[in-house]
Design goal:
Elements lengths: L12 H19 L6 E3 L3 H5 L2 H14 L3 E3 L37 E5 L4 E2 L5 E2 L4 E5 L22 E4 L2 E4 L6
Amino acid sequence: MTHFASSEVAGSAQTSTQRGRFERSVRIFAAAGLRPAWVHAGNSSMMDNEGVRNVAWLRGVAGIAGARSMVRAGIALYGYCLPIEGEGQSEVRQELQPVMAWKTRVIGLRRVQAGETVGYNGIFVAERRMRLALLPVGYADGLRRELSASNARPGGGRWCRGRGWRLWGGCR
């Protein structure tokens, strides 16, 4: 098995090198008489980035050893895929839908002044005095860091008491 380090990058030289090495390894094992039941390579991004071509390649490599191919779907099981960088084709993303809702409680409210920073690396800078809600969650709980916000890139949408608000925007 292998996992591609750059599968979300279209035309990645690193992925191409990994694919070549992996295929050579499978050929060596097959020549030595080793017959695995499964040959595993890839993840959600591998399926999303020219997935038909990549899955066909994997089936061919598995066939060298008389094995069945397997891909770990990972994050796609939850209805998400990473953006494909470069000229890649998103074949999976259009069909995906989130499969769950994520909920928590507000455990505190804080006031910040204009110019104060909030979040990882101080990515959000308050443009005005505002009130922020403190949520007892983070990356370890499944809250993706890219849902945080900068002044140039708004964060993910949230609901509070039935009203939408920006991740760092608080609830009034």
